[in-house]
Design goal:
Length: 379
């Protein structure tokens, strides 16, 4: 990819790039809807990502090209408004530029830019965070500036929240920024505080993307958020992370039936994240897998953000040899299931799962096989 993007840059802009960067996509490993409750989450940075090549220009022109659309868009450096037409992908690098001053950093002026990716977009693997972090690193490099990882992560999140307008939590950018091959990224969302946890060797990720999406998904996220905050209020805490499972059970009579179930999921899920870290330290992938599947069951029965299709995939995968565990990954209400499997699980088994799904639902999930990979870096 590194040679490919340099060659593409030359083809488009007629010269060499000054810097090439790369940032990975991510998988939510465990910790479902824990972030806005102040909890913890584990994510995996994957071996697919977005590459960005940039070279500064003498003038104030910014020439953006991505294979994503295949066309060059030129903007003047004075233009910092959100793009609303077919070139809206530019809002990711533009949002990063707009965020830099908020962190005491200088925005670049004119430049030539190329982005390239081996990460499917909109598949729940956070290509958006990857393009933000790769762009951020490239813009810092061409302006001779440096930022630590945490600042880079916050710049990407700021771009996505305030410029693009997506209210994502810290997971996406945090994992893309702090990722490390053969490790998971642990995030305590309250700090936020970032750490890495070694992942034993024989850990393969398989994503089954159903491409299903609940029609009311935005409203459902908002309802879950509201129910969690309502439960925290009744429990007398500012965020659910401050409540124990025993406290939630003790307050069952005071909480609405839904608020009780949501709170129970959140506090038990946070405990599962901690348990996952503990069993990872022992290298026990079977125990990790059991926690992953337990997380799914909790989403299914308590948090109410699974679907029949996702449950079918988890049931099928959990009964398949060489699969440690499986769970919905991301917001839920459709989307994708992640399976953690050993090297003995291969494409034939994955296709058999997709066959069973297709027979039942008349559509085939996309299958992606991934390993972990390093976090955002200049390459
Ligand atoms: P996800 O982050 O799950 O992949 P999003 O909708 O948050 O989905 O982000 C996808 C968007 O990010 C794309 O629609 C596009 O605007 C932008 N994007 C991602 N990768 C690239 C790329 N290589 N080139 C240009 N834009 C990209
Ligand atoms: Mg995204």
């Amino acid at each position: 990819m590194q040679q490919k993007i340099a060659a593409l840059f030359k083809e488009i802009h007629g010269r060499e790039p000054a810097v090439v960067t790369r940032a990975p996509g991510r998988i939510e490993f465990i910790g479902n809807h824990t972030d806005y409750n102040g909890g913890t989450v584990l994510g995996a940075s994957i071996d697919r990502g977005v590459w960005v090549a940039v070279a500064p220009r003498e003038d104030a022109k910014r020439n953006f090209f991505s294979l994503f659309t295949g066309e060059t868009v030129t903007l003047d450096a004075a233009v910092s408004l959100k793009q609303t037409d077919g070139t809206s992908w530019i809002n990711y690098p533009l949002g990063v530029i707009a965020a830099l001053p908020a962190f005491g950093l200088q925005a670049p002026q004119g430049f030539d830019y190329v982005a390239m990716s081996d990460l499917p977009t909109g598949a729940g693997l956070s290509s958006s965070a990857a393009i933000e972090l790769a762009s951020g690193l490239a813009f810092l490099a061409i302006t001779g500036q440096h930022a630590d990882r945490e600042t880079l992560v916050k710049i990407g999140k700021h771009a996505e929240n305030h410029f693009v307008g997506v209210p994502c939590g810290i997971l996406d950018q945090g994992v893309s920024g702090f990722g490390k091959a053969n490790h998971l990224v642990f995030i305590d969302c309250r700090g936020p505080r970032f750490d890495t946890v070694p992942l034993p060797g024989d850990a393969h990720f398989w994503i089954f993307n159903t491409h299903t999406k609940h029609a009311l998904v935005d409203g459902l996220y908002a309802a879950r958020h509201r129910e969690c905050m309502e439960a925290a209020k009744v429990l007398g805490v500012s965020l659910l992370v401050e409540a124990t499972p025993a406290q939630v059970d003790g307050a069952k009579g005071k909480l609405s039936a839904d608020a009780y179930k949501r709170a129970k999921h959140v506090v038990e899920e946070i405990a599962r994240v901690d348990q996952t870290v503990q069993v990872l330290e022992k290298g026990d992938l079977a125990a990790v897998g059991a926690l992953l599947t337990a997380s799914h069951r909790s989403s299914q029965t308590l948090f109410g953000n699974s679907t029949e299709e996702l449950d079918f995939l988890v049931d099928t995968l959990a009964a398949t040899p060489n699969v440690f565990g499986a769970r919905l990954t991301g917001g839920g209400f459709g989307g994708a299931v992640m399976a953690l499997a050993s090297a003995d699980f291969g494409d034939a088994q994955a296709q058999a799962v997709a066959d069973a799904y297709e027979k039942k639902y008349g559509a085939r999930p996309d299958i992606l096989h991934m390993l972990t990979g390093d976090g955002a870096q200049v390459v």
